Amino acid sequence: MVSLRSILSEAVEREWITHNVALDVKLRRKSRTAEDEKIIPTKDEIRLIIENAPASHRAMFITAIFTGMRISELRGLTWDCVDLTRRVIKVTKRADEFGAMGAPKSRAGLRDIPMAPIVHQTLSAWRSEALENDLELVFPNGAGRVQNYSNIYNRIFKPMLVANGIVNDRGEAKFGIHALRHAAASLFIEQGWNPKKIQTLLGHASITMTMDTYGHLFESPEEDVSLFEKLESDLLAA
Q1: CATH number of the domain at 43-217, please?
Q2: Could you give the maximum distance between any two Cα atoms of the chain, in Å?
């Protein structure tokens, strides 16, 4: 609608039409509900996922939790980008919704992510268990092709959450797969890592995106109280 209004405004300016009808259209804004809020899994929920994930997808979910990789990047991850010797995952590609492989959405998406010990151990073991496939995918489907996102969520992730009681007040799965990326970000922040490092690890195009998305997690009211106490003490001590 914004684009249409701009186009018609230009047409009015050029006197091709007399009135911009798009200005008369009022779009109803959807009210913000709890479902729209970003949900960050708790540590207990993260542990439940790690402990109870189906064997077929446990390696994928653990990698997501400890690297913050997008599901499209995990679906497109190939073994040549997993350096088990250096313990680094190189993100160089992604799989779109149709399973087509391509570059990350931005240059910032190209990055190296160190492996936590559990990721290294899990992927080392998964290397011998994963289905051999021509694409050398780390997490292929049963036919050796790129996994379909809907299948992962509807057949694996959602049933896993429900089975382990990770549900909302209606008994539905509490969050989607993208919440694992939020979980990783919250763990990074809890460790006290600086925002610039976290931006790089998550592959955000700008620090603004990182702070707009996770800035509230950097806040600590208790620490702020201490800072103001010190501010007063330093000023009045003299």
Answers
A1: 1.10.443.10
A2: 74
Residue pair 20/138 in contact by the 8 Å Cβ criterion:
no
- The band of 36, judged by pLDDT with boundaries at 50, 70 and 90, is very low
- Indicate the pLDDT class of residue 154, thresholds 50, 70 and 90: very high
Q: Where are the domains of the chain?
A: 2-29, 43-217
Q: Where are the beta strands (DSSP E) in the chain?
A: 82-83, 88-91, 94-95, 101-102, 111-114
Beta strands per DSSP E along 98-183? 101-102, 111-114
Query: From CA 230, how far away is CA 188, in angstroms rounded?
Result: 27
170 CB neighbour count, 10 Å cutoff: 5
Lowest mean pLDDT across 32-36, 56-60, 136-140, 225-229: 32-36
pTM as predicted: 0.79
Rounded CA-CA distance 46/179 in Å is: 10
**Looking at the predicted structure, is the pLDDT value of residue 32 above 60?**
no
- Contact present, 218 and 195 (Cβ < 8 Å): yes
Is residue 118 within 8 Å of 66, Cβ to Cβ? Answer: yes
Contact 119, 108 (CB under 8 A): no
**How does 57-94 read in b/e, with b if 16+ C-beta sit within 10 Å?**
bbbbbbbbbbbbbbbbbbbbbbeebbeeeebebbbbbb
